[in-house]
Design brief:
Length: about 80
């Protein structure tokens, strides 16, 4: 059984369908049993849509912090590529 933190850390990859089949199944089965992670999933899904509009969504801190972290790390990669 996955921990909530492990599920929530992988939500973006899960929503982008970037996870391996086995991981996706593990997360799906966790989501079936865990209302908290289902909530986090729907918030993350909403944020993905909002991100394109560059708004500042008011959502629970944990989800946003994790999403921001993921966005930040993607940006770091982009900057590194650009600076070459
Ligand atoms: Zn959970």
């Amino acid at each position: 059984m996955l921990k909530c933190i492990e599920v929530q850390d992988n939500l973006i990859a899960f929503l982008k369908e970037e996870l391996a089949e086995g991981e996706r199944i593990r997360i799906q089965s966790h989501l079936r049993e865990c209302g908290q992670c289902r909530q986090a999933r729907s918030e993350t899904d909403k944020l993905r849509g909002l991100f394109h509009l560059e708004t500042s969504p008011a959502v629970s801190g944990g989800v946003w912090a994790r999403l921001a972290e993921s966005i930040k790390s993607e940006k770091t990669v982009t900057v590194k590529i650009r600076s070459k």
